[in-house]
Design a protein that fits this description.
Layout (H helix, E strand, L loop, with lengths): L4 H17 L12 E8 L10 E4 L11 E4 L15 E9 L8 E8 L1
Antiparallel strand pairs: 1-2, 1-4, 2-3, 4-5
Length: 111
């Protein structure tokens, strides 16, 4: 019995496709830099005020603890109807474009 080259090619193709489809893709979640608490909007009237207040030391009361100011609340998923405090995990970097104590959120997720 003579084997057809087309039949061998089909069997090899099916074997190759079947063996690749069973592999699980392993993804490991990269940890965030900090757990943080967004305590509310900064309503003070000053040059460096405004945006949202965020603390990294667990302080729940606004205007206390080590907080930094961030802006663009809609960009990080905060809505006007959200209730504070909001517990999050964040990656951030210092905003070096001004003299105020701002940070830029690079990645955020609710805890």
């Amino acid at each position: 019995m003579k084997k057809s080259p087309q039949l061998i090619a089909i069997i090899l193709t099916l074997f190759f496709l079947g063996s690749n489809s069973c592999q699980k893709e392993i993804t490991q979640e990269v940890p965030y830099i900090n757990n943080a608490i967004i305590t509310g909007y900064d309503v003070r009237a000053c040059v460096c005020c405004g945006g949202l207040m965020i603390t990294f030391d667990g302080e729940l009361k606004p205007y206390t603890g080590a907080f930094r100011l961030i802006s663009n609340s809609a960009d990080i998923g905060i809505k006007q109807t959200d209730t504070f405090p909001i517990y999050v995990k964040v990656d951030w970097k210092e905003d070096t474009t001004n003299i105020c104590n701002h940070i830029l959120i690079t990645k955020i997720a609710r805890r």
